[in-house]
Amino acid sequence: MAVSPKDLIREDVLRLSAYHVPDSRGLVKLDAMENPYGLPDGLRDAVGLLARETALNRYPDPSGAALRLRLREVMGVPAGMDILLGNGSDEIIQILCLAVAKPGAVAMGVDPSFVMFRMIATIAGLRYEGVPLGAGFSLDRPAMLAALERHRPALTFLAYPNNPTGNLFDADDVAEVIRRAPGLVVVDEAYTAFAGASFMERLSEHPNLLVMRTLSKLGLAGLRIGFLVGRPEWLAELDKLRLPYNVNVLSQRVAERVLASAEVLLEQAAAIRIARAVLLDALAALPGVDALPSSANFILFQVADADAVFAGLKARGVLVKNLNGSHPRLAGCLRVTVGTPEENQAFLRALRETLGG
Ligand SMILES: *Cc1c(COP(=O)(O)O)cnc(C)c1O
Fold first, then answer.
1. Distance 190 CA to ligand 1 centre (A)
2. In Å, how far are 23, 31, 34, 346 from 28, measured between CA atoms?
3. pTM, whole model, 2 decimals?
């Protein structure tokens, strides 16, 4: 008798649907918060040489020491704090969740927020509590503090700025959540390059704070490099759950080389911030479009019929993210990544045609 998946696989896993990545071939890709700019030729040549010289027959440095040193310097990691590398910050979220997943343990976040918090926590066996955001997607301080008391989460995730809403929470509200949390608070700063705000400098104030970053939104999404910054006593425990060699040798070496020229990425981020302001103005001028100010490299906007607008944009060659139906607070919402000025113009043209037609 052949064994079938339903005999062996966990019931919660059987009920899950796989993370869906839409086919973007031939489309202007504005759905995944990627940096639209490639690397300049000089850096591409340097990366090519590095790949040629790298001993692919050898395992990578298990701790990624050279890359961590470079990150420390470029990202302003405070003295006394350690760095843990992940295969993207998704893997760091997984490590965090696995580490605290005692029977009955709870992870908390806000709603709507980054879907991977809930998804990974649930797979790790944690109960996940999402606290509804307040007006204008702000942090609802009283609701958060009450939920901390009630659920006593081992782990609380706050994306700063938040995805998919794009706003920065009030820093005092976040600090109060960190102070009152009975467990760890992870401030996810995936979009920090576009926000000019961070909790990195406040790590020493808060013994239960960890700051998570990624190179994905900065221009290196394909390398899959995320990292967690925090006190050595926390990171030493988390490091036990990290698989050996979790960041491959090419990613380590290329990231280290590109970050040696970090100004290239930071200039691209600055260009994206300027393009964001232009795009927001253009969206604000469109009747029937309600766009939210953003501190990230994307803009959330609401239309009367999001499914039709999504389809209309796609038919005109532009892929955005349709959030309609993903959460009650996101009814009618689409999320567009800020691209190059040309890509943004293509998006606006397609949007005007779609709304007009
Ligand atoms: C995109 C994103 C990440 C990045 O995940 P990686 O696995 O590092 O690519 C993390 N957190 C938030 C809130 C994001 O939007």
1. 6
2. 11, 9, 12, 8
3. 0.97
